[in-house]
Backbone:
């Protein structure tokens, strides 16, 4: 029976025609397992996951394997991007049992959803000390049939062990100067001074850490913080992890040098990195950072924007290599012969030298991932543009990677913030319009009349899964950025609806701790809770940041109190694990700075208003919020009671609603807030 045909998840739809009798995560699957007295196979992955595709082809498309699965298990397929709560709970169990995790995640459960055996990818035949998937299935089935009591006992012990891992959190003091300094010291010790970034292979873009470093530099003047941020950004954007032709970043580098990426392109990475490079430009005026920020923004709009105005989740790592094989990176890599075919011999030789394409190759089968030299290239700008255009046109003839078209609320919130700010900084109103279009979609489709947020939609159809903390927090962050850029108070109002829900449904009133799921959400074997960043800011830190910004815009004391209560975890974890709580540290920098509240009072379209507004948006003061409009506006509380000065537009810079003397001079405003201004 095809139970996956009507879902909104592209990942589940990829499996809809498998011979495996898949169920989505729903009560009926567990009822069926109880009725048949069989265990559940839980398989978790996502559409852009290379090894998920491999295991699907090897095992889930195999008739014999499927027949065994159907006879001995109830089989449940979960898209981790639609159900991050399910993924988080069972990934914690996998990591606790095996010391590692990853996707595809393979977990065997009792009919009560209690896990008892774990793994990730299993090959179709024994390999490198790993059992085959069929051997695992047979072993689990035999254990269930012959020793069901023991299995139940093991499962119960695992659930009890997970319960002891509940985060012990009491609202500590908020992080201060000491914690910020210790975090910076910890990062400097883990910093790869030769290659940029932190740690070894695989190496992930440290977006949230870079935001902390930029804010710390802005507040303290630390040149070391700025150097780590700038050098890491330079290395990443010159490496193979960055698409040198079409813009946009791949998920991570498999090596320490940023040369060979895992080729999937995720919306969240590109949204976060677009904002990082825009903020780096704001701090330094780097033309290189400006180019990368705009190229990342254009990539998102060009390749990820959907017909409904939102942004798709990902592009696959794999594509057809032209021979019918589905190969990772086939769309992006080049051989010298392919360059010659696209450019002719003379330009191909120059392109090979410029982009590091060699006969030996830097990837597989003699192909190379395009990179930029660390110093000046061999091509002038005009010729380079011509070569890039021709290579892009030639690449467009190749079979393109698949696109995961589902709209994830949280990731669209990140994209809204990035596009709104990048469009404002670089005077690209089309990017701001793209941000507004995505925000309109979220309000129209994802937000119900009780301000509850749906996690996903696809093709204009909203998904059944409730939003989790990161959805509320990141969408609020996007709406707050739009309010600052556009001066439209409706976005502040929508952010307030979402953040009120965070306080009521996600926050422990006694400790200030945050949970990843709402109090009235589906009950799992435990309520997930994680303050540490992963590929995106943790919902915990993201909520703290949005709550703090909203409080600065409105003076709402409950929201500031909630933000400060949540930030106690940064005081505890920041000095010990700064790489994994970068966004929390960035929010702490905003708190240490105030954050500043900047009210720009003046009529729309007035050159004085525009100049002051632009200067305020370009301010490097950590977490500064901006409101623009007239004092008569009742949608933006920062503007209330703040008149023009001598009949001219004026800027008021405040902390905790206590303001300095207003100014009509953009240069004085820039001096008060920092920022590059016009260049």
Residues:
């Amino acid at each position: 029976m095809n139970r996956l045909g009507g879902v909104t998840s592209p990942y589940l739809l990829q499996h809809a025609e498998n011979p495996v009798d898949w169920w989505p995560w729903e009560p009926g699957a567990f009822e069926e397992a109880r009725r048949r007295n069989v265990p559940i196979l839980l398989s978790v992955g996502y559409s852009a996951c290379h090894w998920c595709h491999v295991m699907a082809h090897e095992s889930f498309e195999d008739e014999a394997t499927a027949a065994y699965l159907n006879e001995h298990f109830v089989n449940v397929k979960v898209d981790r991007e639609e159900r991050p709560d399910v993924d988080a709970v069972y990934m914690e169990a996998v990591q606790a049992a095996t010391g590692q995790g990853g996707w595809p995640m393979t977990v065997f459960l009792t009919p009560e959803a209690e896990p008892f055996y774990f793994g990730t990818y299993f090959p179709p035949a024994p390999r490198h000390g790993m059992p085959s998937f069929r051997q695992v299935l047979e072993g689990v089935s035999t254990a269930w049939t012959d020793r069901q009591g023991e299995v139940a006992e093991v499962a119960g012990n695992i659930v009890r062990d997970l319960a002891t891992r509940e985060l012990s959190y009491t609202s500590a003091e908020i992080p201060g100067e000491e914690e910020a300094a210790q975090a910076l010291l910890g990062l400097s010790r883990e910093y790869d001074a030769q290659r940029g970034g932190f740690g070894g292979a695989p190496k992930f873009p440290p977006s949230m850490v870079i935001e902390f470093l930029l804010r710390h530099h802005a507040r303290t003047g630390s040149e070391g913080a700025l150097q780590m941020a700038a050098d890491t950004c330079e290395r990443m954007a010159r490496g193979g992890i960055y698409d040198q032709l079409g813009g946009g970043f791949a998920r991570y580098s498999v090596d320490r040098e940023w040369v060979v990426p895992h080729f999937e392109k995720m919306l969240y990475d590109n949204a976060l990195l677009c904002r990082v490079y825009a903020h780096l430009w704001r701090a330094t005026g780097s033309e290189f950072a400006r180019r990368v920020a705009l190229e990342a923004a254009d990539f998102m709009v060009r390749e990820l924007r959907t017909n409904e105005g939102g942004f798709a989740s990902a592009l696959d790592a794999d594509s057809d290599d032209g021979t019918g094989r589905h190969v990772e990176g086939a769309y992006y890599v080049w051989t010298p012969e392919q360059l010659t075919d696209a450019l002719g011999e003379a330009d191909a030789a120059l392109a090979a030298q410029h982009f590091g394409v060699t006969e030996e190759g830097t990837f597989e089968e003699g192909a190379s991932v395009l990179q930029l030299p660390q110093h000046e290239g061999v091509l002038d700008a005009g010729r380079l543009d011509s070569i890039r255009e021709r290579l892009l046109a030639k690449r467009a003839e190749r079979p393109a990677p698949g696109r995961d078209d589902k709209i994830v609320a949280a990731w669209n919130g990140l994209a809204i913030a990035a596009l709104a700010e990048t469009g404002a900084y670089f005077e690209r109103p089309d990017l701001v319009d793209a941000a507004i279009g995505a925000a309109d979609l979220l309000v129209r489709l994802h937000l119900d009349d009780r301000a509850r947020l749906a996690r996903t939609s696809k093709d204009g159809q909203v998904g059944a899964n409730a939003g989790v903390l990161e959805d509320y927090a990141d969408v609020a962050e996007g709406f707050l950025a739009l309010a600052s850029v556009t001066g439209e108070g409706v976005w502040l109002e929508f952010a307030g609806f979402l953040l009120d829900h965070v306080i009521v449904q996600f926050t422990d009133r006694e400790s200030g701790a945050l949970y990843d799921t709402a109090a009235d959400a589906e009950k799992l074997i435990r309520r997930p809770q994680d303050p540490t960043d992963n590929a995106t800011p943790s919902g915990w830190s993201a909520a703290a940041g949005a709550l703090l910004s909203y409080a600065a815009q409105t003076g709402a004391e409950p929201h500031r109190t909630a933000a400060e209560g949540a930030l106690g975890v940064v005081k505890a974890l920041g000095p010990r694990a700064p790489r994994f709580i970068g966004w929390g540290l960035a929010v702490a920098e905003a708190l240490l700075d105030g954050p500043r509240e900047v009210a720009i009072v003046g009529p729309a379209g007035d050159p004085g208003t525009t100049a002051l507004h632009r200067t305020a948006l370009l301010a490097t003061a950590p977490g500064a919020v901006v409101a623009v409009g007239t004092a008569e506006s009742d949608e933006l509380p920062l503007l209330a009671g703040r008149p023009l000065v001598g009949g001219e537009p004026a800027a008021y810079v405040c902390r905790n609603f206590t303001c300095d003397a207003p100014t009509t001079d953009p240069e004085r405003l820039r001096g008060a807030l920092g920022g590059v201004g016009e260049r």
Summary: Residues 267-284 form the longest helix (18 residues). The mean pLDDT is 94. The domain at 596-673 is CATH 3.40.30 (Glutaredoxin). Residues 244 and 370 are 6 Å apart (CA to CA).
